[in-house]
Amino acid sequence: MKVATLEVEQPQAEPSTDQLIDRSIEGDQRSFGDLVERYQRKIFRVAYAILRDEMESDLVTQDAFVQAWLHLAKFERRSNFETWVTRIAINRARDLIRSRRWTVPLASQTEEDEAGFEPIDDKADPERNALSRQMNDAIERAVDSLSTQQKMIFRLRHYENLPLEEISQIMGLRAGTVRAHLFRAVHKLRAELSGWLPGRELKGKAG
Amino acid sequence: MRHYSEVDLLERYYIPSSEMDEVGKHLATCQPCAERYALLSGKLRDSACTSVQSLDRKPDTFWIRQRMSVGRKIEQHSLRAPSAGKTARLAAIAAVFTVLFGGGLLYRDQIARWNPPETVVTSNAPASDLAPLDVLATISAPDDVWESEELKPFGEAVQWESWMTSPAISSGGTL
């Protein structure tokens, strides 16, 4: 008796990150391209959170992936691929921030930010947007006086809202160290934002 | 009861702590402070979003270009890597050749030093004038060195010198 077999085409499952890594190690650049596509937005956002410059963040993102490709065989998979590449990008961004100390800025960071950003949806709430922008400038002024590491930690927390555990993981620091750096950053921020945020008068009042 | 200002609540926003700590307990029970905390969180989130909003609006072409740049840089590295390997291989071959050649020269020099070449005495005289080896073997050295064949042309002088040192002369003999 003949049994008719019906071949049903199953939808191809998307390869896992580990599978893509394995193929990339074998030299398959297309698989690595898929890895880049999967994580480039996250890496770019983290780089931008730290550097506050789109062009530099773009370069750092590219460099991070190129370095990842070159050292993929050494990737021990103790952490996930995303964390590993993010760490590469953070190290590169740190180098850039440090090198900035030796370059004379042509314009202040605030001016750059204002010029670099597209106008956000002004129709929605222009006043609120303007206030947000001004407040962000004040935050950046406070952040500018921080050390490189404090700056990076604070920006990852503020702009990307990353949990402390993730920050400590991608920066290779202890959670306690990250917390201590954040304390110092917030201390500076309190002084800078005291004009923006109402509040000291409430102290001591009975509720 | 102590209330918290927005500035005071900054720390709680950035450094989350247990819900059971002093501020957490207070926020859970105090409506005005909870509202103030919500307001602060909104402001800070807005200010952060304001600056990253442009990132979310990036067109697909931006990400495609970025991927292409990564691909191009990887290609460049792959092209550079074999040529670097080739150079290294050539350098290694050159080094081995230098070592071998230098070693050979040194060895030859050392061998020459340990085994010096035998001194060859050449003569301008025609080969026929030279005594054959068997003839040389038969020549015996004279007992008296003064009777040597080589001194024949100087016979008189030699005899005179011999006279000077002769015991007969010294004892009063005649010439």
Structure, described:
The complex is a heterodimer of chains A (about 210) and B (about 180). With about 210 residues, chain A is an all-alpha fold. In chain A, about 65% of the residues lie in helices and about 0% in strands. Chain A contains nine helices and no strands. Chain A has helices at about 15-25, 30-50, 55-70, 80-100, 110-115, 125-145, 150-160, 165-170, 175-195. With about 180 residues, chain B is mainly α. Chain B is rod-shaped and about 150 Å long. In chain B, about 15% of the residues are buried. In chain B, helix 1 crosses helix 3 (about 30-55) and helix 2 (about 20-30) packs across helix 3. Chains A and B meet through helix 2, helix 3, helix 6, helix 7 and helix 9 of A and helix 1, helix 3 and helix 4 of B.
Note the gap between the termini of chain A.
87 Å
What fraction, in percent, of the residue positions of chain A are helical?
Answer: 55-70%
Q: What Rg of chain A, in angstroms, do the CA atoms define?
A: 22 Å
Order of helices and strands of chain A: HHHHHHHHH
Please tally the helical runs of chain A, counting DSSP H or I stretches of 4 or more residues.
9
Give the radius of gyration of chain B: 56 Å
DSSP summary, beta strand count of chain B? 0
CATH architecture of the largest domain in chain A: Orthogonal Bundle
Q: Uncertain segments of chain A of ≥5 residues (pLDDT<50)? A: 106-122, 201-207
Tell me how many strands of chain A there are: 0
Oligomeric description of these chains: heterodimer
Strand percentage of chain A, roughly?
under 5%
Structural class of chain A: mainly alpha
Number of DSSP helical runs of chain B: 7
Query: What is the name of the CATH class of the largest domain in chain A?
Result: Mainly Alpha
